[in-house]
Every structure is written in structure tokens, then in C-alpha cells.
Amino acid sequence: MTQKLKVPATSLLVLEKAIPLYGSPLQQTYINAIDFSEVSQASRDMTRAYPPGADMIYYRKQAIREMIRLRLEQFPAQQMVILGAGLDPLSLYLLETYPGRLSRIIEVDNGYIDVKKKIYEEILHIKGLQFVHCDLTDIVLLEALLKQHGYSADEPTIIILEGVIPYISNEEFVQVMQLFSSAGRQNQGIVDYALAYSDIPDNYLVYHRNLLKAMEAQLNITVNLNTRQQIMDLVARFGQLDYLEPLYETEKRLTGTNRAFHQPGHGSVEMAVFSL
Fold it and tell me: N or C terminus of the chain with fewer C-beta within 10 Å?
């Protein structure tokens, strides 16, 4: 690309921390097309407030990749819907890692999905990759646009909701997931959620509090926090919980040790996988 595309620092922060995960030439071409010059101060502020932030993002994304891998072993063909897709090039990783395994990938976001689409169109020419500009909380419009872009309710589906629950209400989360409920529970949801203070160990409360303050200051929001029990109760309204995975378990499974996170609640976010 002759000119790098600029987007606000808050949208770049998570992507910057995840850069080590995207090492292929195609993925690097995507990363290099984005101007990260405005993220440096926000990144430094976040690192000071929450030193484990880069590890949190890295292991969260690695957990999602592993959950997708396991799911793809179960069904020979399925589709994927990435809600709140943001700038993360997960779809590039999947297209390169599992060629021909996904009938379609639909990315949905209300922010910079058009920026992402522009970059993808310059570096990638492939059918079955759709971009939907939509507010996730507009359920009627979301359902209509998903159908317009090829979503099939009869096909097994992986639904990714990464980094979204902290910014919407629990009722909105339930309503979105209900769109994907199936009679045979053939679909799988993979989400992360920010833990309530009561589920954070005392030895991690300072980190957790600093992270939330930084997020709320940068984005001018109140972060939606949940206990593990609340997440289980919410999932029961539209599906069946398969398992919860704390970040310390992800780190141990992937590295064989616990360097950053040592017990449930360390890392401030956890993962949930469910059938719906």
C-alpha cells in the first residue's frame, strides 16, 4: 500500500500487543498497512497501569485459536461469525491455517470494519469472506445483514465474541447469542469476559483495578464485569456451557509453566466455550 491507514489509538492497542501472533508474510502485509504511530502513548500508559496486559492479550488469543482448532476437528465443514471483529486479522490466520475448512467467514463490527475491508481487498482475493458494518446491539438489523451476507442457520457455526462483553450489557449479550441458537446445539460460541472483583484473588486486585481504571478512562465507559456464576447463568438462557478456561490454565497448557498467571482470576479475563 502506498499510504498506511490510520485509526484511533484505542482500536490499535490490542492489535499492537498481538503482533507476535501474526508472522506469515500475508499477515505481516496486513499489519504493515496500519499506522501504529498514535498508539505508543496509550500503550505505555496501559503497560504502566497493567504490566501483564500483553500476556493477557496473547494468551486470550492463543486460547481462541486452540478452541477453534478443536472445533474444526469435529465438523468437516462449517462457517464462522466473528462479532466485534475489530482490526484483528484472525480471518487471515484461519484462511492460511485451515484452507478450505470454512465455507464462509463473516466479520461484524460497528467501528473500523471498512478500513479492514479496504486492506483485505488489496492483499487478499478470496470468496467467502464477508464484512458487515453493524452495531451488534441492533439485533433486528444484525440478523438481516447476516442473512444478506450468506449466513446459513442450517450449517454448524463457530461464533467468536472477543473483547465485546465488557462493553455491552448482559441482556444484549444474551440477545445476540440467541440469534445463533439451534435445535441440535450444533453451534459453538467462544467468548471472553472481564471478571468481577469478587472473583479476583487479593494478590491480583491492584492489577485488576488499574486495568479497569485505564480502560474506563481511555474509552469513557463503565466496564461490564461478571462473576463465573453470572456467565454460567447467562449461557444457560440460550445454550449449554462446555467449559470455562482461566488464563492460568491457558498459559500452563501452552507453555508448560505459569510465568504470568498463577491461579484463577489472574489475568482479569477468562474464556467461556458453549454449545447453542
Answer: N
Q: What are phi and psi of 158, to 5 degrees?
A: -100, 125
Handedness of CA 276, 80, 83, 133 (dihedral sign): negative
Parallel, antiparallel or unpaired: strands 5-6 and 34-35: parallel
Q: What distance lies between CA 7 and its chain's CA centroid?
A: 18
Cα(68)–Cα(56) distance, integer angstroms: 19
Q: Which residues contact 15 (CB under 8 A, 6 or more apart)?
A: 31, 34, 86, 87, 88
User: Exposed (0-12), middle (13-18) or buried (19+): which is 149, by Cβ within 10 Å?
Assistant: middle
Are the C-beta atoms of 5 and 32 separated by less than 8 Å?
Answer: no
Residues 227/197, Cβ–Cβ less than 8 Å: no
In three-state secondary structure terms, 87 is coil
Q: Report how far residue 276's alpha carbon sits from residue 216's, in angstroms, rounded to the nearest whole number.
A: 31
- Reduced to 3 states (helix: H, G, I; strand: E, B; else coil), residue 60 is helix
**Residue 55 is which amino acid?**
D
Counting every residue, how long is the chain? Answer: 276
pLDDT tens-digit profile of 136-190? Answer: 999 999 999 999 999 999 999 999 999 999 999 999 999 999 999 999 999 999 9
pTM of this structure? 0.94
H/E element, 58: helix 53-72
DSSP state of 160: E
Strand 240-246, strand 269-275: pairing: antiparallel
Amino acid identity at 186: Q
